[in-house]
Known about the structure:
- By secondary structure, the protein is of the alpha+beta class.
- 21% of the residues lie in helices and 42% in strands.
- The protein has three helices and seven strands.
- Strands 3-4-5-7-6 form a five-stranded mixed beta barrel.
- A hairpin with a 7-residue loop joins strand 6 (110-117) and strand 7 (125-132).
Amino acid sequence: MLEARLGKLEGMQSSKVRGYDRASKNYFNLQFLEQRPIGPAAIRQMLADLKKESKGEEDFPLAGFEFTAITGTVVKAGDTWTFTARGSGEKYDVVPNAALQKLVAEGHPTLTIAGKVSDEPGPLRIEISDAKVPAN
Length: 136
């Protein structure tokens, strides 16, 4: 049921269960259309709507939201790092790791990154776990 609801979100290309464990429940692999940003807030709203429609019977908490691959431009201005997604133009604050810092220092502003996305109020922030030069 949840997989089908996720698949209906505007901008969703595919939604598949990736795994399951008792503590965290389901893990999903979500693929988005490059031009449509979908963030944690959209997922949380869909889950809240599902809970309301089921009169509280269905509750699917969102434990986290991570990108496994998103391509865009990384800019460093002083101590501030910003990532702009290539297709959607969505901007994210970045907490860089050593790999990202090295690639930007080597002159690679366009990168494919992976990392955990914050769901706190304010601008979205990505804590980078991986960074590489894109194939295309």
